[in-house]
Specification:
twelve-stranded mixed β-sheet, alpha+beta, eight-stranded mixed β-sheet
């Protein structure tokens, strides 16, 4: 079947990395709504965003989303002209074939880029028609992992701009009482925390809570010029637990078993720290490793034994044998770490052999562990990765847990994954950021306190289908973490589970036979509810994750079987995994096709340019940021930005005035009506060059009004800011005061609004300042001048917008033919500005000084330096 290829859109979401261009500035994000539903630690998160093309021609839009590293994307859809187009998860090769076919036909194609630290970053690029709003919806699921006795729900922000309508809703539903809920906070890549006071926490019961975070435009602008981009919102919580065999959730034919006992005595550990000191560790990395190790030594338990190996091309142990934890040994070890210096090459094989030999010779009780850190590849001794893995695995005959840390981009993370995976250990990336020492300490905190080892779980009787149960043997359980097992229920299942749990504890071996009651019985949740089928999807999620972990060190035959099983489960449950992709196809006639058959190559669609400034007939956005501009509106606000509407142009023009502390600028001057408005700027002196309006002075023929963030003064009468106050002057109502705004009514056709703001600047201090808005300027005469007033009667007679290629992005440059007494050609560039009065972001054409009647200094009424001279 042939399809009409005009305006065809293909989006592919995959775990493969593609390259995309930067999004041009002709796009605006009107809304960003994020909702996360957590049902017994299984989180389903939906991200909905409205992206609007405000340009008169087709533009490329990027839908940026960041998801946790452990999550799988489950759905991606687009709504165009009120019709929803859902994605389809397909096998990767098939999806790639469809993508390449689309490119040959000249179709617009969606590309995805994955990169980043602790996250999957997806950038989906699509073509959007002129003056059109596209609604994106992306969903992902993840199983929250317990670390340091808390579950972390992390929401990432990546809009790239301030969003007028931004909402985050997190609903937590647990079967047990929520025992701890920490205040939500924002965090950047360096893990610097920003406390947020705008969150609302509503307890629906002791096991259900709703967390809402709705930051305003001002809230976002206080963080940065691009709002919350690059930050993440973190919610941490825990549930009640006991010393029993755990908690079982049974819903819709599947069960999930959580085991996190409390009150157990820590198992003593015998740990060797194997630390790379080759020349690539020179500088900050060595300093950070030393700092982290000094903190880790202080956290060793009194019952532990330890040693340190400093290695480059030579292996230099601190002591010949394992040492007890005493005040003297800790001091000696501290001195050894402080003396470590970076030089030489990297002999991983000999260093690991030495560490394993030390643990083999030590016959004392305790869990054998190696904490291994390197920032590179083996360059001396055994350098082939396969041989090195085989050698270390063969030497580890007594089951030492090897915990590996790949420090920086130069480290071979895949090598460390293989080494740790074969020893039932964990590999982790440490990023070369300012907080690298904290990353090292944090990793050690997670593994510092083992409480169970050699854990084996058996489900007795016929309650469970044992062929479907996920992994039931676990090497080590550390305090603050959790064991999770899932599987299918048998047809003869009951509300209780009989199980046997065998493990090693500090006191010796234990076998616990227990009967566990399920928190929910079969079929209790209604179809379509948030909890419906969540246990089945959790089982599929956990099965896929464990298979992918096994694949890393499986033989070729087993690896092929794993790939087939993962692909089968991914297609059935709609997960985007390394073997599947998600495809969305939309044709102009709204037919949806997944046709992969080759067809003749067709020419790319023709793009028709619409007149600049033309009205949009297809926009479906209902956001406040898309409200039409009246020809009489404009404002001067923030630091400070000037925005003013021009007749003949749909979007307003904007410009900035870089004043000095104490400068007074004329904003409006109308000799006919006798209205003068001046604004005095100040600098908060908080490591910023920005200035703000601290005083607005309005002069009429009847009175002079002076407004500051503290008070209003009419001639000599001083008034403080109060809510809902009517202001009269000589019996005539001239204004209405709100808590943070004042509307000045001068005539039937002239109204000004002054906004009293308070914002956090540079996260240092709160700054109070004013914004001035021309709410209605129809009463101003054609002789009006001033930074805002002079545009009152200017108009655009023609406009030509065309994309110009720049080094890293496509910007939109326009030539405006502005007519006053003559026609002037003015260059303008599309940008965005915050409209704090209406709590939104608006798009505008930024002009240069050539659009003003004269240089901005001509509007300067007073400058302190000039007056002093």
């Amino acid at each position: 079947m042939k399809l009409p290829w005009t305006n065809l859109l293909v989006v592919i979401i995959t775990m493969t990395c593609f390259t995309v261009s930067e999004c041009n500035t002709g796009m605006t994000v009107d809304t960003l709504h994020i909702r996360s539903d957590i049902a017994s630690r299984f989180a389903t998160t939906q991200i909905r965003s409205n992206v609007r093309n405000i340009m008169p021609s087709d533009q490329e839009v990027k839908f940026n989303v960041v998801i946790p590293e452990e999550a799988f994307i489950t759905n991606f859809s687009m709504t165009i002209d009120d019709k929803v187009y859902n994605g389809t998860v397909k096998e990767k090769a098939q999806a790639k074939k469809q993508y390449q076919t689309a490119k040959r036909r000249g179709q617009s194609a969606g590309l995805v880029q994955q990169k980043g630290r602790d996250t999957n970053k997806f950038t989906i690029s699509v073509n959007v028609a002129a003056n059109t709003t596209v609604k994106f919806s992306l969903s992902y699921q993840e199983l929250l992992r317990r670390k340091l006795s808390l579950y972390d729900e992390v929401i990432y922000f990546q809009p790239g701009q301030i969003v007028p309508d931004l909402k985050v809703d997190i609903f937590i539903t647990e079967s047990k009482k929520i025992s701890q809920l920490n205040p939500p906070f924002l965090q950047n890549e360096a893990k610097v925390k920003y406390n947020i006071s705008q969150t609302s926490i509503s307890w629906l019961s002791d096991s259900e809570v709703h967390i809402a975070y709705y930051p305003t435009v001002a809230d976002q602008a206080a963080v940065s010029d691009s709002g919350l981009s690059g930050l993440r919102m973190v919610v941490r919580y825990d549930v009640e637990r006991s010393m029993s065999a755990g908690e079982v959730m049974a819903v819709d034919g599947y069960f999930v078993h959580f085991i996190a006992p409390k009150g157990l005595t820590p198992i003593p550990k015998r740990i060797v720290f194997v630390l790379d000191s080759s020349s690539s560790m020179t500088g900050r990395k060595m300093m950070q490793m030393r700092k982290a190790m000094l903190a880790i030594l202080k956290d060793l338990h009194q019952e532990d034994k330890f040693n340190i190996i400093d290695f480059n091309h030579r292996v230099k142990p601190w002591k010949k044998q394992m040492m007890p934890v005493t005040k003297g040994t800790l001091q000696a070890a501290t001195n050894f770490v402080k003396r470590m210096k970076a030089s030489g090459s990297t002999n991983i094989g000999e260093a690991m052999k030495k560490g394993l030999d030390m643990l083999t010779k030590d016959k004392s009780d305790g869990l054998p562990m190696i904490m291994f850190l390197t920032d590179g590849h083996p360059s001396v001794g055994i350098v082939r990765h396969d041989r090195l893995i085989t050698k270390i695995t063969g030497q580890n005959t007594f089951g030492a847990r090897i915990m590996s840390l790949a420090f920086g981009q130069g480290a071979s993370y895949s090598l460390l994954q293989q080494i740790s995976g074969r020893s039932h250990g964990v590999a982790r990336k440490i990023y070369e950021d300012a907080d690298a020492d904290l990353q090292l300490e944090g990793f050690y905190d997670e593994i510092s306190t083992p409480i169970l080892s050699e854990v084996k779980i058996n489900y007795l009787g016929d309650s469970v289908d044992n062929d479907t149960v996920t992994v039931t043997d676990f090497n080590t359980l550390f305090e603050g973490s959790e064991i999770i097992v899932s599987g299918k229920l048998s047809e003869s299942s009951s509300p209780t589970f009989d199980l046997s749990l065998a493990a090693n504890v500090a006191e010796g071996n234990i076998v616990l036979d227990d009967t566990v009651e399920t928190s929910m019985t079969l079929g209790q949740t209604p179809s379509g509810s948030e909890l419906s089928r969540f246990t089945e999807r959790m089982w599929a999620f956990l099965t896929i994750k464990q298979l992918l972990e096994e694949k890393d060190f499986a033989d070729p035959q087993r690896r092929l079987a794993i790939e087939q099983k993962v692909t089968q489960l991914s297609l059935k449950y709609g997960f985007v995994t390394p073997f599947t992709s998600l495809v969305v196809t939309k044709a102009q006639n709204d037919e949806v096709s997944n046709n992969d058959s080759p067809e003749s190559t067709l020419p790319p669609p023709n793009r028709q340019r619409k007149p600049a400034g033309g009205s949009s007939s297809s926009s479906s956005s209902s956001s406040s940021s898309s409200s039409p501009w009246k020809p009489s509106t404009g404002y001067a606000d923030n630091d400070p930005h000037f925005v003013m509407a021009l007749k003949g142009l749909e979007l307003p023009i904007c410009f900035d005035v870089m004043g000095q502390d104490g400068d007074v600028f004329n904003l409006v001057s109308d000799p006919v009506s006798g209205i003068e408005v001046d604004g005095k700027v100040f600098s908060p002196r908080l490591q910023t060059e920005k200035t703000f309006f601290g005083t607005i002075i309005v002069k009429t023929r009847d009175y002079t009004l002076k407004i500051t963030p503290r008070n209003l003064m009419i001639d000599k009468l001083k008034l403080t800011w109060k809510e809902n106050m009517m202001i009269k002057w000589h019996g005539k109502t001239i204004g209405f005061m709100g808590r943070d705004n004042f509307t000045l009514h001068i005539s039937k056709a002239t109204d000004f609004v002054i906004i009293n703001h308070q914002r956090l600047i540079k996260n240092v201090a709160k700054v109070k300042f004013l914004g001035f808005y021309l709410n209605n300027a129809e009463g101003l005469s054609s002789s009006t001048n001033g930074l805002l007033g002079e545009f009152r009667h200017k108009m655009v007679v023609s406009a030509d917008f065309r994309p110009l290629k720049h080094t890293v992005f496509y910007a939109n440059l326009g030539l405006l033919n502005v007519m006053t007494s003559a026609i002037d050609v003015v260059k303008a560039r599309l940008q965005q500005r915050p409209d704090l009065e209406h709590d939104r972001v608006i798009s505008c054409w930024k002009i240069n000084d050539g659009a003003l009647s004269s240089d901005t200094s001509s509007y300067l009424v007073y400058r302190r330096r000039a007056a002093e001279e």
